[in-house]
Specification:
The complex is a heterodimer of chains A (about 170) and B (about 130). Chain A is an all-alpha fold and about 170 residues long. Helix content of chain A is about 80%, strand content about 0%. Chain A contains 6 helices and no strands. Chain B contains 2 helices and 7 strands. Classes of the chains: A mainly alpha (about 170), B alpha+beta (about 130). Chains A and B meet through helix 5 and helix 6 of A and helix 1 and helix 2 of B.
Chain lengths: ~170, ~130
């Protein structure tokens, strides 16, 4: 009982952490202009959850974070894009983390997540606009997601190392 | 950072550079161009380039929102929009075939198309 309560609190803390990170990243101006381009800092939280708890919890966190972000900023028109991106990227990351963690560290997992996040967003956008030419952005986005994915992976390695210690002590 | 990571990074780098090359290649391969304005997936306006069109502005008012586009010498841009982030305004001019400006909140796509699209499907003609 106590253990479950502790896990619940920890997961809700992670959701609010992800929310804070997405709000902060929406304030950071990015010099390269591509529609939908962002740093993906909230993916750190998703990765940490994947490492510490598992894929089920990571899904819950990713979907909750997208919903709460839409509620907090009022950007409900972008909810479809962020939700489809979040679901697809978490799916890709859990598969890579579960079956291919011998080959890839968290950096590789995070790059996979970033690429599939873009794919999900573009898929939702092209379905809503009924124009599949939006996918001509895809190579530009994958190129940029290499850099953001690398740093997101690096910071999640460091963060999850410390968080494992905290979870172990309790 | 494992060996797999490095392979992944190299592979993605290579594939996206090839992808960018193809997008650029197909977008510069143009015949006579025209501007196609689509809202909610349906083409609502076709505008062809010409000397009399340079500097003209066109209002696009739909149920989804308002955009104002400016036509230049073989290029087009959005100068006013009522969407919150104004990414379409910041994108600036587009001039090549296949290039698009998208305004997601207003469901508007401005695309440069070429009239030779159908002819392009013939690879080679021999006599």
């Amino acid at each position: 009982m106590m253990k479950q309560l502790r896990k619940l609190i920890f997961l809700s803390l992670l959701v609010s952490l992800g929310l804070a990170l997405s709000i902060i990243e929406s304030m950071i101006p990015i010099p390269i202009l591509l529609p939908g381009m962002k740093l993906g800092l909230a993916n750190i939280v998703c990765l940490i959850t994947l490492v510490l708890f598992g894929y089920k919890e990571a899904f819950v966190i990713a979907i909750l974070r997208a919903l709460v972000f839409a509620l907090a900023t009022g950007g409900f028109s972008s909810l479809a894009y962020s939700l489809s991106g979040a679901i697809l990227s978490t799916l890709a990351m859990s598969i890579v983390f579960k079956y291919f963690s011998n080959y890839f560290s968290l950096i590789g997992v995070s790059i996979f997540g970033a690429i599939f996040h873009n794919a999900g967003q573009l898929l939702a956008a092209s379905l809503i606009m009924e124009n599949f030419k939006i996918f001509s952005y895809f190579p530009f986005m994958t190129l940029l997601s290499l850099f953001t994915g690398y740093f997101v992976g690096l910071s999640s390695i460091l963060a999850s190392k410390n968080m494992k210690k905290i979870l172990g002590e309790n | 950072m494992t060996k797999g990571d490095k392979c992944l990074i190299a592979l993605v780098l290579l594939l996206s550079l090839i992808g960018i090359y193809f997008v650029k290649y197909y977008s510069t391969n143009s015949g006579s161009k025209y501007i196609s304005i689509q809202v909610d997936g349906k083409e609502i306006k076709k505008i062809s380039f010409g000397a009399n069109m340079i500097g003209k502005t066109i209002d696009i008012k739909t149920e989804f929102g308002y955009n104002k586009i400016e036509i230049g010498d073989g290029k087009v841009r959005v100068i006013e929009a009522d969407c919150p982030d104004k990414l379409d305004v910041k994108q600036g001019w587009i001039s090549n075939k296949g290039e698009i400006i998208v305004c997601l909140p207003n469901r508007m796509v401005i695309e440069i198309k070429s009239e030779t699209d159908e002819v392009d499907e013939i690879d080679h003609i021999s006599y």
